[in-house]
Amino acid sequence: MSDKEYKKEQFLKIDDHLLHDSCPSEYLEQISREPWFSEYPFSMLLKLKDTPQSKRYHPEGSVWAHTMMVVNEAAKRKRESQSERTLMWAALLHDIGKPGTTKIKREKITSYNHDFEGEQLTEDFLSCFTGDVSWIKSVAKLVKYHMHILYVTEKLPFGDAVKMKQETDVNEVALLGLCDRIGRGNSDPDYEKEIVRKFQKMMLR
């Protein structure tokens, strides 16, 4: 078996666990210790382990720790999605842009623009395993717009709600965003659900 075939096999195993496990993080934690996980493109995920986050917003720790929580949350809610596979891969890859954008200045940790950077990285990652361009784009667009719940509800200038509605589905963004917001160490699920409902109302007017 060639290296490319072996990596494709590992991708398909991840795909299967994302779609069928109630707690996909258990398998992901296991394979993250395998030698092949340090090879490209899986190394893009491994970098999440060494990427810190603001303790104020993410007391759970690294981007990897957060991502595992988000993936598990998405597994609980995947049947609410139009495409379970798209949601689950977007959950796994939603913060793939953080390793390259995270900066620490005077003990303040930021990762500005990680959502937009993540769009291209998501395409790069998935393109290693499939030629389904339409599906790759659908995952990448969710990654690109997963922060728009914050941008829209707080009226921040970083987003583009009009373009978001043209490029993806508002309710899918809302679902991924809910998983992202609940998948943190200090989250209040009821509060986060209310924020997401507010976002949907603002977008569907």
User: What is the level 1 CATH name of the domain at 3-144?
Assistant: Mainly Alpha
Q: Examine the secondary-structure arrangement and name the CATH architecture of the domain at 3-144.
A: Orthogonal Bundle
Oligomer: single chain
Kindly report the average pLDDT value: 97
What is the general shape? Answer: globular
Largest sheet properties: 2 strands, antiparallel
Question: How far apart, in Å, are the first and last alpha carbons?
Answer: 53 Å
What is the beta-strand fraction?
under 5%
Q: Helix content range of the residues, please? A: 55-70%
Tally of DSSP β-strands = 2
Order of H and E elements: HHHHHHEEHHHHHH
Domain HD/PDEase: 59-194
InterPro entries: HD/PDEase_dom (IPR003607), HD_domain (IPR006674), HDIG_dom (IPR006675), tRNA_CCA-adding_enzyme (IPR050124)
GO molecular function, one term: nucleotide binding
Protein name: Putative nucleotidyltransferase with HDIG domain
Structural overview:
Residues 59-194 form the HD/PDEase domain. InterPro entries: HD/PDEase_dom, HD_domain, HDIG_dom, tRNA_CCA-adding_enzyme. GO terms for molecular function: nucleotide binding; transferase activity. It comes from Lacrimispora xylanisolvens. This protein is 61% helix and 3% strand. The protein has 205 residues and is mostly helical. The protein has a domain at 3-144: Hypothetical protein af1432. A two-stranded antiparallel ribbon has the order 1-2. A hairpin with a 2-residue loop joins strand 1 (103-105) and strand 2 (108-110). Helix 4 (63-77) runs antiparallel to helix 5 and helix 4 (63-77) packs across helix 11.
